[in-house]
Write a structure and sequence with these properties.
The protein is α/β, with parallel strands linked by helices. The chain has a single domain, classed as Vaccinia Virus protein VP39 (Rossmann fold). The protein has a seven-stranded mixed β-sheet with strand order 3-2-1-4-5-7-6, with helices on both faces. Strand 4, helix 7 and strand 5 form a beta-alpha-beta unit. The structure holds S-adenosylmethionine. S-adenosylmethionine binds next to helix 4, strand 2 and helix 6.
Length: 209
């Protein structure tokens, strides 16, 4: 749940990001971007972890990738995956306009496939794509996450539907079931330590052994 008072305490971003958030809120064809409270958590985590390699699943128009690029050490880089061509193209334009084209690489493609061929290790992974697919992504995410690396999974409370059965919309039943499976797995996986934080739409914060 968003809390207006607490949201108002969050410092404003630079003009570029503020404009991008505003534009995204007006454009119906744009995917929703990260909620402000979650965004502030991401910035705090990046300052804490100082990751060198970041992976994002779910670019949309590039807002969170640019936000992360602004808050990473100079020699860090971001790979971000987006399956919807229209979003990926807009994201590439936004990345260039932000001046972070050397830091951010947008890969257009279905994450389940891209994650499969992607290699290297990442110190921070932000999972923000189709919620029903998180469980399917997990084996590759585990392979790609460095030891000691951090995985942040967004929207895991899914508008209250995860905790309250009565709120589950009929057409969301499968997604909710899959998110339950995902949460049970990341809470019990012996290589992960996970906390669920009810911020924004709920995040799971995991650290790999
Ligand atoms: C909530 S938006 C991401 C918002 C972005 N992280 C931000 O805060 O600026 C989710 C995006 O993930 C993309 N997406 C969903 N499932 C995907 C998948 N399986 N592979 C790649 N992209 C996916 C959607 O097209 C959408 O643009």
């Amino acid at each position: 749940m968003e809390n207006n008072y607490l949201d108002e305490l969050i410092p404003k971003r630079d003009e570029f990001l503020e404009n991008l958030r505003y534009k995204s809120s007006l454009e119906e064809s744009y995917a929703p971007i990260v909620q402000k409270s979650t965004e502030q958590l991401i910035v705090t985590l990046l300052k804490l972890i100082k990751p060198h390699r970041v992976l994002e699943v779910g670019t949309a128009v590039g807002y969170s990738a640019i936000l992360m690029a602004q808050n990473l050490p100079d020699d860090s880089s971001i790979v971000t995956i987006e399956r919807y061509k229209k979003h990926a193209d807009i994201a590439v334009d936004n990345v260039f306009a932000s001046g972070f084209e050397k830091k951010i690489k947008v890969i257009e493609g279905e994450a389940a496939e891209v994650l499969h061929w992607l290699d290297g290790r990442f110190d921070f992974i932000f999972l923000d794509a189709a919620k029903g697919q998180y469980i399917e992504f997990l084996p590759d995410i585990m392979r790609l996450l460095n030891s000691g690396g951090v995985l942040l999974s967004d929207n895991i409370l899914y508008h209250g539907m995860i905790e309250d059965e009565e709120k589950v919309e009929r057409r969301k039943i499968t997604i909710v079931k899959r998110l339950h499976m995902y949460l049970e797995e990341i809470m019990n996986n012996e290589n992960l330590t996970t906390s669920i934080i009810p911020i924004g739409d709920g995040v799971a914060l995991s650290v790999k052994k």
